[in-house]
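Hey, I was hoping to borrow your eyes for a little while. I've been puzzling over a protein and I'd love to understand its fold better. The fold is given in discrete form, as structure tokens running alongside the sequence. I'd be grateful if you could look everything over and explain what you see. No rush at all, and the record is pasted right below.
>
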Amino acid sequence: MEIHADEPYKSPLLLRIASLASRAVFFLAVLALAGFLFKVPVLASFFRESIPMAPSTALCFILLSGALMLRNSRSPWSGRAIYAAAVCVASVSLVVLFRRIATFGKLEVIPLWQMSPVTAALFLLAATGLLRLARDRTGPDRAALAADSTLLLLSSLILTGYLYGSPLFYGGQTIPVAFPTGAAFFALSAALLLSDPESLKTTPFFGNSVEAVLLRNFLPLTAAAVLLNGVVNLAGRSFFGGLPIINALSALAAMAAAAWLARRVALRVGGELTLAQRQRREGEARYRALVDASADGILTADLETRKFKFANPAICRMLGYTAEELTGLGVTEIHPKDALPAVIAEFEAQARGEKLLAPDIPCLRKDGTVFYADINTVRTVIDGRDCNLGMFRDSTERRKAEEGLRESEERYRSLFENMLNGFAYCRMLFDGEKPADFVYLSVNKAFETLTGLKNAAGRKVSEVIPGIREADPGLFEIYGRVARTGKPETFETYVEALKMWFSVSAYSPAKDHFVAVFDVVTARKQAEEALRKSETRLRATLEAAADGILAVDSEGKVAGANRRFAELWRIPRALLERGDDKALLDFVLEQLSDPGAFLKKVRELYDSDDESLDTLAFRDGRFFERFSLPMKLDGGRIGRVWSFRDVTAHRRAELEKERLNAELLEKNRELENFLYLTTHDLRGPLINILGFSQNLEGYAKRLREALAPAPLPAGARKTVDELAGNSIPAALGFILESSRKMDSLISALLKVSRIGRVEMKPATVDMGELAEKILASMRYQLEEAGGEIRCGDLPPCLADPDAVNRIFSNLLDNALKYRREDSPPRIELAGERREGLVVYTVADNGAGIPEKDLHGIWNLFYRHEKAGEKAGEGIGLAMVRRMAERNGGRIWVESKEGKGSVFYVGLPAAPAPPGRAI
């Protein structure tokens, strides 16, 4: 077996043999398992008298050989598979061994279908060797090598025992190991050894030494001869009952093969030794010539004494000494004293083999000048002494050049790495004339920051960005054109594979190469797209707006206007599109009733940040509502936006409304005056009617008393009694009752008329204090009804205090009056601020108001009577509503019959005290 001496562990032959051996193990195990499953013993034993392989043993071999095959096929998850297989097999082996230890001393014959303890021990060795492959360590692993070698030796013994009829080698009858098991272990150990080349290279089988040559040639042949002879013996015993002639013939054949191999090896070893001597002499001559002709200085120093033993002409020229002078000097004498500690440290590190090259070492010439040299050392032996052979190369000029280059590179690198733009230097790959791919040769940090692509340098773009060739063929065409023609191009493109927009400048520094300097403009493109969509939406919105809109810049130029603006001001479209602000202004001023006031307002607003809302009157009777606000950018004014709305119909309706309201107000005043005068004038006759009716009632009584003793006929007496006793008093009673009702109505009307005539004097009303006074006045009614009034937060309002008192007194009184008979009244009074008002609520659990009456309760003389209750005048809620409205508020109600009512009173909120927020 010939293996390359320099790198024997990399020989493909070893890997092929290892792969074949692992496959053989897998085949033997599968065959044995099939024999057990299908009850064909010969498949598991190979010979009738041989012990069959146990099923558990076959499964372990399948796991180990399968893991090895995965490893040799370079599967990405082979490491995990090897580790799992080794752990499983080791676990099974330990279980078998522990069971054997537990039954130690007892005579026990192991069934053929169970694993032998020797087999379990061998599996532990195999798992140990396999774990080295799972760990994927670098360098040799002597423990794994020892385990694999032991496994090979033991499996060889097992096979030898079977082949030569020696049961002692495979356990005899007590602890038998099957022949297929021994064969499988032999192949497995070979596969493990050959799969671990870094450990195998430490064995004496490799190299060009005589020992290695003899071992590589004799040992395989010897092993093959032993196995072949054993197979012949085994076959002779099996088929012929044993024939001595067969043993003799096999021995003669082995001797002949050994003699042939010995002659062949002897010739090779002798030839190699002769060739080596000749090559050594020639090499020494060549070495001497090379050393003398070398431009590099060469010095050999004794490691112990640090004295020089040899110097070539080049080092003599460098240092200014002769060869004889240098051999009398040492390491410390050719270097400046201040640099000696560092130089000695470098010398010792090289002596220990830690490093070979010591760069830029200062060297001292004979004349005292200093130069710098790179010293490369090799460990060697001269006259039996360990020495360092140092090669000196003057680095002075290189240092200067490198310093200049380093400064230039630093400037370039600083610019390259800190530029905000991405930079990519690439080589284009062509398929004929068509650009097929390109390689990133160099990229800067901004490239990675902008694109998010990592480790791109040295890789193809198709690897860095999968699918880019199909998604962005146009990019390849541009870069290919630049790389071939050398003409620079600047462009913006969307890279579909990255979902990004780029602004790129590309040029070609060399043929088939290009540089792309780029920036990611996705945000700008998205902003432009968003702006375009926004402008489209804004334009559509402006054109669909019912108002006329005009935008004017800070210089008075028309920046934009919608169609409605031109329609409202009746401006020709051509004039609007000219953008001549003076011509446009002259055109619109002619339409206004007061153009001077219009111009004055416009000039004021252009110098102001205020918003404005006013109304424009036109000569033709139209009215426009004008709204204006400044356009700002970064805190500065850049113009104004004007919005015009045709409010002619609305304005006319308002004027008509104002006229009608004035007329209504006047009529209300007349009505209130009429009502007041009428009720006041009716009061006098009504008092007379009441007085004379009471007098008549007295006169009728006196007449009845006067006529009582008078002798009258029976018919006359009956008539007198009927008239004086019944008819006249009854008629007078009706007159008096009607007069009282009429007096009550007149009083109510007087109250209503006085509300309109009384001046409201708004003031801040402390609602908490007012509520306490009202509750104090109602204490008796509450106690009598067993009721309760709870007050929540009551913010102050701005209204007439007396009116507010009457409003809430009336509402609380009604809540008590119209309570339910089956439960005591519960009334809650609270308030909250809402948009400039304080909305107070009076909520009760009373009888509630029928839905059909919710709107009628505010009418004058409305009465909601309940059985057994006394009705009021029917003007309370009408007066409450009138007082609320006169104080700038309003009142409304929510109610469900049988569930109670909630009255809402909205009154103007009182201003907050200074220093306090509302």
The first strand starts at residue 297 and ends at 302. DSSP finds 29 helices and 22 strands in the chain.
